[in-house]
Amino acid sequence: MNRVALGAAVLAFSALGAQAAYAQSMSLKSAEVSDGAAMKDEQVLNGFGCKGGNISPSLSWSGAPSGTKSFALTNYDPDAPTGSGWWHWVVFNIPAATTSIPKNAGDVKAKLMPEGAIQSRTDFGTGGWGGPCPPARKAASLHLHGVCSGRRQAAGREG
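Structure (tokenized):
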């Protein structure tokens, strides 16, 4: 059974670098994924011997503190048998006014992410959602981060 942990955190950054994260009451929810529950076959990778749909879940959130400039979304499996874990999904520059993303927004070709959001390269070697394909005992962590400074730009771009 594939299990997922949902979490939300707010990170504070200064111009000189990261400061300590501070606790907030942000909430992250999904119609397809429940905290601690089995991830549905629809979200599981279709590859590496797994036969899932490889569709990213819909997500909604609330409770971002005033001053949040953007959001970053990560799906990371710290227990993947690589020695360093596995990044399944990395998205940043999600506009601060955004409070949800639809199911399958992780398909870069579908263009369902809010304008300006960037789906970064994952450990699959491409951008976008790459579903889990773990043994039954494993869990992945899906986190939303509120960034409290200026929006980060993609490498090689000015602005």
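The chain has one domain: 3-147. Confidence is low (pLDDT under 50) at residues 8-23, 151-159.
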